[in-house]
Amino acid sequence: MRLSFSILFLAAALYAAPLRGVIVEETTDRPIPHVNITYISGKVLGQSDSRGRFEFTLDSRNAVLLFKKAGFDSTVAEMQDFADLLDVVVTMRSNARHLGSATIIGDGSAAWQNPKAVSMQKLEDAAGLRFDLTEHLSQMPGMSGQMDFSSNLFYDGSRAEEVAYHLGELRVPNMRHLDIGFPGNLSVINPRAIENININEHYGTNPFNQGLAGSVQFAPRNSDEFKANISMGTTLREIYMEGPWLFGDGFAFSARYLDPFMLKNMGEKFFTEFRKKDDRNDDRPAETNFFSLSSMDIYARLFGSDSSHNSWALTGLYASDEYSVRQESVAVIQGTQIYGLASAEYKTFGGTNIHVGMISQEISKNLKDTSAFRKIECPNIIICDPNLIDNYEKSHLTASTGISWEQTDNLGFALLYDFHNVSRKWGEDLGSEDELNDNVVQANIYYKIGSSTFRNTLGAGGVFSSSAKQILPLASFDTEKEFSKSLAVFGNTAWRSDWHEYLDGNEIKGELNGGASMKAGTRLTFGGVKISAHGLGRYYPNPILPIPDAFEYYKEQQKVDFGWVSGAQMTFEYHSLHRVALQSNVSRIYGEYELPNGHSLPWQANSHLDMASHLRIYPRSDSLISFIISHRAALNKPLYEWAITPPTAEEPGQRHIKLSDETASLFRTDFRFNLDLKSNVRFFFLEKVRFFVEANNIFAPMDVKALRFLGGDNARERSVSVSNISDNGFDIVPFMAKGMGFYLQFGIEGHFGL
């Protein structure tokens, strides 16, 4: 009897097997939390955690497990099929049909999944968590154009200002701290507060206000599990919290602060330092720099749902920046920027979506001769500070409301209203002032035809501006055909219209502009590789020429007939969740502003090559350590300059655009090391500690021409300066400052939870 018991005990020990893995959604690789895991016999093992991970001890290496969760097809997995039970990845396919804002569980057939709705988890898989949301945006298909310390991102050849950004359902500016080309600046919206980034380019889904290029929507996180992150980096200090609130509801809170001393340190190296020492005279006076900088943001969100599965959310955001940068006793750049946002959203289970919100922008800027060692004299025709280039104060308040609803599974409508109040002061003593009030109304109707393997969406509508007394049309057609799980083709064409404000001499005006776009491409999936590629084109019948940082209120004298853009873009992805993740966006864009008499100007988004790549390596299967290598390249982006004719008693000020001899290029390789340590002892709910070290532009010190593609001295357009001064005027030309050189950052993050 004792022998039999010993044999049975030995057999159990031999056949018992530890199991560790993660459950992900088949089409998005997004982890699926709280999946029920049982033996095929029905015996319960447990659930996956909030990150989709699980860890158990199996009765046998040959066990067969069943994975079940509402909204997904059940998955049966035989453990003998896995070579390593400590590194198991289980995929589950969604069986949901997405109808606008509602989700209906179907009969088990897999629905088409929008490949442009990308979770932050997936973006972080290759790039790691970036503190700047713009760096995550550069990973999205179609996105290009980021330069050092810039918020200018282009989508499929559009200009930066044509992309419509949304926080939830509310349209917001592309908000960025210290948005003056200052090093260390970052997005106002905290990436930790975002669940998904969605790109929409047809009028068949929210948000319908899509600018002239399409919309980028930051979908906020709505988690009712308590989590907290505290980060202390070289420059950034932040706290982020989320968790339950009242009865079944939740909250999220974020506060961030940029350390002024470290900003000053970065500014001395990459803002006020000249591009190259041999570019200037050796006898220039020594530089004396002074920085006064402050930057912070606060974000809060309350959300919940009722017993009928209708959801609601309240969101608020506040951000403030003050800056003054002095060189040789001259405040070359000085100003403030303040953003305030409040919104409310209500979504019914039946597909009706209502939102209301308000956003305020307060911006002031004083720009003086940025080449501080070069003292200039003003022409005799104007009386001014000899260093002053331009200054202004601007306020823009937007109140928005909208409703969209689905009449049937395929037919829906949307109605949006925006009120704009814009005021501006300018001139040396801010003596010039004007104000604009405008009402903008947009109406849409859309019709969807689709199945699990194809979808077509038709959208139509119009937009009206009361001040401009304009009505322009909206139209789109979007199609996708899935031939198999590994091959799909897609296409899109649209006519978009959008409102913008501009200065016409001394008067602020509102105006509607329109443009057409077209794209076609394919998506391939095989193994762990995903490839998406498409060609694109754009046409603008009445484009706005580039506007300088200074003298925006001077009247542009150059006429333009039309604008056009063409190009191609490819996204490549490869990853296994515990070993390697690789993601790369590559694009090439060329377009022109066609001018009278056969002349032309290069398009703002032009680039011979634009590429953003991330490689993340996990040397260990438990992912305690990871190495991230990021590389960015942007080749020959055009720059512009303007001939300025100051105002006289008879004539207003004028400007005339022309192409600069300089171009901007970026080549940069960054290296980041993460060490994630789990806490074995519960100390104030501490779950994990992350230590990180990041080295930026690691090849910059080498200054080897053969390695230029990997990194170097990336001269960039920091601002403008004055040249060619005469009695009749002067030129405004790009001021090319030093880009990001080699820079080392480090920090620690604490992750807390219940």
Keywords:
754 residues, mainly beta, 22-stranded antiparallel β-barrel, 5-stranded mixed sheet, 4 helices
Structure description:
There is one protein chain. Helix content is 5%, strand content 58%. It is built from 4 helices and 42 strands. The strands form 6 sheets. It has a 22-stranded antiparallel beta barrel. A hairpin with a 2-residue loop joins strand 29 and strand 30. It is globular, with a radius of gyration of 28 Å. The N terminus is likely disordered.
Question: Quick summary of this structure?
Answer:
With 754 residues, the protein is mainly β. The chain is 5% helix and 58% strand. It is globular.
Give the arrangement of secondary structure elements.
Blueprint: H1 2-15, E1 17-25, E2 36-39, E3 44-47, E4 53-58, E5 64-68, E6 75-78, E7 88-92, E8 96-99, E9 102-105, E10 117-119, H2 120-127, H3 133-137, E11 143-144, E12 154-155, E13 163-167, E14 170-172, E15 194-200, E16 214-220, E17 227-233, E18 236-245, E19 249-258, H4 260-270, E20 289-305, E21 311-327, E22 330-347, E23 353-368, E24 388-406, E25 411-426, E26 432-450, E27 454-465, E28 470-484, E29 487-504, E30 507-526, E31 529-540, E32 555-556, E33 562-576, E34 580-594, E35 600-602, E36 607-617, E37 625-645, E38 654-678, E39 686-696, E40 716-726, E41 729-737, E42 743-753
Parallel strand pairs: 1-7, 13-16, 32-38
Antiparallel strand pairs: 1-4, 2-3, 2-5, 5-6, 8-9, 10-15, 11-12, 13-14, 15-16, 17-18, 17-42, 18-19, 19-20, 20-21, 21-22, 22-23, 23-24, 24-25, 25-26, 26-27, 27-28, 28-29, 29-30, 30-31, 31-33, 33-34, 34-35, 34-36, 36-37, 37-38, 37-41, 38-39, 39-42, 40-41
